[in-house]
Amino acid sequence: MSRRIQLFCCRVEKKPRDTVLILVLCFARIHPPEFFKNKYAVDEAHYVTEISSVLASKKPAVLLTLRGVNTDSGNVSKEASFEGISQFNVNNTILHPEIAECRVIKTNMELEVLRYTNKISSEAHKEVMKAVKVGMKEYELESLFQHYCYTRGGMRHTSYTCICGSGENSSVLHYGHAGAPNDKTIEDGDLCLFDMGGEYYCYGSDITCTFPANGKFTADQRAVYEAVLKASRAVMRAVKPGVAWPDMHRLADRVHLEELTRIGILKGNVDDMVKVHLGAIFMPHGLGHLLGIDVHDVGGYPEGVERVEEPGLRSLRTARRLQQGMVLTIEPGIYFIEHLLEQALHDPAQACFINNDVLRRFRGLGGVRIEDDIAVTATGMELLTCVPRTVEEIEAFMAEGQSSAKSFHCLSSQKQ
Fold it and tell me: pTM of the entire structure?
């Protein structure tokens, strides 16, 4: 059996000129190249220490290295480098757009992994909905989600930092970061907006469920939730190859404005509301994004695809036309964000459409987002996410969970 000795050293400063050197010997098996050929189904495998000599023996005309800007994040991928690379003719511009385009369209095997990430993550969301109780901390539910994904699905990582906003925190689009670490106590009457997704073999999922902490929507919560659900389902019915993604955002926006008018928060002509971009006050983010190896995957704005510089639309992570094999999120939302509402109320072009007396009733509600993952098919779409979505489904599911918890508590008490 081939083995190697690894030496780890660390310097510990106890006081000036008092240094301790810790040596750790670790034995690790080194598999032969044949092992990696079989594991990854490749033609050749070599140790990285041989990279320069192996490549030189191939006498390549050019080496392609991966360097380019992620049009979603603005991050630049770091290209490979090794000792001896200067002897080769290297091109670092060709490969990135080609690899990005390969990632946009998923193979059948990739789709299978994405179906799995969604299945486990959906089940984890359902466990959270059954477990939530008034008085819990938001991070307790985050912990439960992560625990379920790992123990039941082998998902060691989440696709992104979990967003577990309750009450007014549900209007904070990227709540849950280090500055707001899911640490609020969940209160009676709160809406919970939980945006969480597990990752498996680098492939992610991205699912948001919004539900009442006490298991029962108020009339106002229900009205807003059903408005968002209506937008989600309208987009799902419209998705098919050839559809422009900005048009899907516009569709969701229009449904929101129509529903907010029906509720009474808005008044007037919806076409005129669209002209002044009123929808972006209530949904300041884009409708959805490409999903795959990154939760916001690459390839959103290839050469020739331009960003639409309008409120809301400028936040879209892609403006492409849909193609079969793309995987995206559909995540419409309506939020009551104080500074955006104040901004609209001080803009005569937008304020004329707002019924402030009714709006006042909703300003502490927070927000509602409904996010599903879908794959574009030849004639429409495949829904990958499977969680309770209608008000009736959510309330019935949460009531069942609370009933099971009570039964378990009673049995536990009898045993004691």
Answer: 0.88
CA–CA separation, 72 and 101 (whole Å): 14
**Confidence at residue 293, expressed as pLDDT on a 0 to 100 scale:** 95
If one compares 74 and 257, the residue with the highest pLDDT of the two is 257
Residue 360, helix vs strand vs coil: helix
pLDDT, average across residues 2-18: 37
Distance between start and end Cα atoms, the chain:
54
H/E run at residue 133:
none
Q: What is the pLDDT confidence band of residue 405, given thresholds at 50, 70 and 90?
A: low
Angle (CA) 349 352 357, round 5°: 140
pLDDT at position 89 is 95
Provide φ and ψ at 281, rounded to 5°. Answer: -70, -35
DSSP state of 285: S
Nearest to 318 by CA among 66, 73, 97, 67: 73
Please state the φ and ψ torsions of residue 321, each to the nearest 5 degrees: -85, 140
Residue 210 has pLDDT above 70, yes or no: yes
Half-sphere exposure of 49 (CA within 13 A, CB side): 1
Beta bridge pairs of residue 3: 29
One-letter amino acid at 390 equals T
To 5 degrees, how large is the angle CA 329–CA 214–CA 392?
60
What pLDDT digit, counting tens, does each position of 227-247 carry? 999 999 999 999 999 999 999
DSSP code per residue over 158-189: ESS--EEEEGGGGG-TTTTSTTS-S-PBP-TT
* Cα–Cα distance measured from residue 274 to residue 84, given in angstroms and rounded to the nearest whole number: 58
> 165 has which bridge partners?
193
Determine the distance from the C-alpha atom of residue 386 to the mean position of all C-alpha atoms in its chain, rounded to a whole number.
Answer: 15
In three-state secondary structure terms, 62 is: coil
Report the chain's mean pLDDT, rounded to a whole number: 91
The owner of tokens 């001080």 is 346
Nearest to 322 by CA among 381, 370, 373, 385: 381
By the 8 A CB rule, do 289 and 306 touch? no
Distance, C-alpha 24 to centroid of its chain: 40
Sign of CA dihedral 232, 238, 239, 242: negative
E strands within 177-265? 191-196, 198-199, 207-212
Strand ranges (DSSP E) for 302-349? 327-330, 333-335
For residue 357, what are the contacts with CB-CB under 8 A and spacing of at least 6? Answer: none
